[in-house]
From TrEMBL:
Major localization listed first in the record, in broad terms: cytoplasm
Places the protein is found: Cytoplasm
Residues covered by the UspA domain: 3-148
Gene3D superfamilies given in the database record: HUPs
Keyword annotations: Cytoplasm
GO cellular component, one term: cytoplasm
Protein name: Universal stress protein
SUPFAM superfamilies: Adenine nucleotide alpha hydrolases-like
Organism from which the protein derives: Acinetobacter kookii
Taxonomic lineage: Bacteria, Pseudomonadati, Pseudomonadota, Gammaproteobacteria, Moraxellales
Superkingdom, natural source: Bacteria
Length: 149
């Protein structure tokens, strides 16, 4: 089996950069296409008039900064790939549910492998913050490589 199109979600954490490094190694072996994505949480109050009336300016500033951060993270991750001679594409995606955005992107790009980091949260933290990696595993039939360190 060879992997021709690898998708790597990157959130700026140390573990996500570790996932990028693993994906780059796989891409080198199989001469794969590598796509790095970063997700920006979409505004859950899109249709709430009161929300935009009272907090519109601070939220706009928040989203501007979130997109700038996502672009910076993808630039840093791309440099890892370029240093290894691997061509890479990047995308910043709006998302309410990260796992849905990741899985939908795999379909659009015809991805055949997802490589992603897992923070390894347990107990209350996992319940409170959730696990995007677990949700992706449950939402796709594609191979998913989970990097834990």
């Amino acid at each position: 089996m060879s992997y021709q199109n690898i998708l790597v979600p990157v959130d700026g954490s140390k573990i996500s950069f570790s996932a990028v490094k693993h994906a780059v190694e796989i891409a080198q072996v199989f001469n794969s296409r590598l796509t790095l994505i970063s997700l920006v949480s979409e505004d859950p109050f899109t249709d709430a008039d009161f929300y935009y009336y009272y907090v519109s300016a601070p939220m706009k500033e928040h989203f501007i900064q979130a997109y700038a951060n996502a672009e910076a993270v993808l630039k840093q991750a791309s440099e890892i790939a370029y240093a290894a001679g691997v061509q890479v594409e990047t995308k910043v995606l709006k998302s309410v549910m990260p796992e849905e955005s990741i899985v939908e992107t795999t379909k659009q790009l015809k991805t055949d492998l997802i490589v992603m980091g897992s923070h390894g949260r347990k107990g209350f933290k996992k319940w409170l913050l959730g696990s995007v990696a677990t949700a992706v595993l449950c939402s796709t039939e594609l191979p998913v490589m989970i990097i834990k360190s």
